[in-house]
Please model this.
Amino acid sequence: MPNVVVVGAQWGDEGKGKVVDLLTQHAQVVVRFQGGNNAGHTLVVGGEKTILTLIPSGILHSGKTCVIGNGVVLDPSVLVAEIDALRARGVIRSEAQLIVSESAHVIFPWHKHLDVLREKARGASPIGTTGRGIGPAYEDKVARRGIRVRDLLDSGRLTRKVEERLTAALDELKLLAGRAGTELPALEPAAIAREYAAFGARLRPHVRDASLYLHGEARAGARILFEGAQGTLLDIDHGTYPFVTSSNCVAGNAAVGSGLGPTEIDRVVGISKAYTTRVGGGPFPTELKNDIGERLRKVGNEFGSVTGRPRRCGWLDGVSLRYAARVNGLSGLALTKLDVLSGLPELKLCTSYSLAGAQTGDFPSDVDDLAQVSPAYETLPGWEERLAGVRSVEQLPAAARAYVRRVEEVAGVPVVCISVGADRGETILLENPFDRPSHR
Model:
């Protein structure tokens, strides 16, 4: 059976949650493979909004198994709260609906404090971190001093590791707090160990070897949907470094962050808004600091679902979209928020950059070069019609169809899905990626 990866093709916030929720009806297993609770996926079904930060977006479908993979850094307090909220709504009815990898790394209070204080120390040049401890937790992981979910299930081991790690972290915390003129909250290792052991007890029924489980499901012919967080341009290796997140957001990490080999992946769907947004610092070639940018923010409700921060808005950047297609190996593109463009008399689409007096169609690998580019635009006619009731390509205004076709041409990837509203039903699925035959 074919397996599909869904990734963001921009700077995050593209609508991955909605697309994953839509495609889950065709899958048996949904896997979140990286990131943490700094990524909010918003789902609207029947007018009811659900915001998830750790649990995969397929959880609203009954009869599906959702997996939090080893590549995720996990704040157990957030996960337990999400589980409780979904149980209260009757969404989670059995422990078998959610599996948590025993190898996922855990976010602790000192990670959050380090995140906030380090950002303050950057002064006028912040990265734009959410302060949720994601980066410091990944830092501990690669430094081979992290604490994993399996450690929460052994109180003796957990207590020892918390004492060791907190003792090492306190020196930096005290230094940063002193520089910031901030009082550091009391961090008592024994109390933290007790609290996290209690989280471990709550999560124990969900914890298992996720890689082994997924291997068994793949061998049994289950359709697996891999859900990424953030977006390609925030990838730690392939994004606009250093204005990036702390994990690999590209499709290749679906294998690493889940424990399945890359030959298990058949299709990759990239998610892109019909325009471009960005949160936090860093270059943004097509940013609109004018009335149109404000209109996109207002009509598109461009405020972070986790942080509430306003997003920077601009025209669709075809150069970065081609780049995302290349580094992810995109086989299809889902275009979201096409409805937000209704009412604009004309639209602009960036097709190349000017850098140091020369035209280029390639995305610069150096962030300083990206900060210096000037976008070259094509102008396309807009449309006045609202798209809320549109359910087929044929029902789209002619100008909207022409815009979609041009996006396909510029990106070099076919559009397989178009979103014309926030609700699950406000979607045109042109091609089901699970219908393609497996390459195996």
Q: What stands out?
A: The radius of gyration is 22 Å. The longest helix spans residues 155-180. The mean pLDDT is 94.
